[in-house]
Amino acid sequence: MKFLVFGVLFFTALYASEAMTIRESNSDPIKEHLLKEVSDILDETRKAIDTLAK
After folding, report:
1. In terms of residue numbers, what domain contains 10?
2. What angle separates helix 2-25 from helix 29-53, to the nearest 10 degrees?
3. Please, what is the end-to-end C-alpha distance for the chain in angstroms?
4. I need a surface site. Which of 4, 9, 48, 52 has the fewest CB within 10 A?
5. Which residues form the signal peptide (predicted)?
6. DSSP line for 16-40
């Protein structure tokens, strides 16, 4: 179970770092949509981890 949580956090961090790189490059609408999707994934991941921690 700990490896699953670690794996989710690791891949979420990869997505977030990629999204920040995209944000810094320029403000293309498609890239903004991708950034929104990644942000939503991060929020859902945090909720899932909080649920698992309880």
Report:
1. 2-53
2. 160
3. 13
4. 4
5. 1-19
6. HHHHHHHHHH---HHHHHHHHHHHH
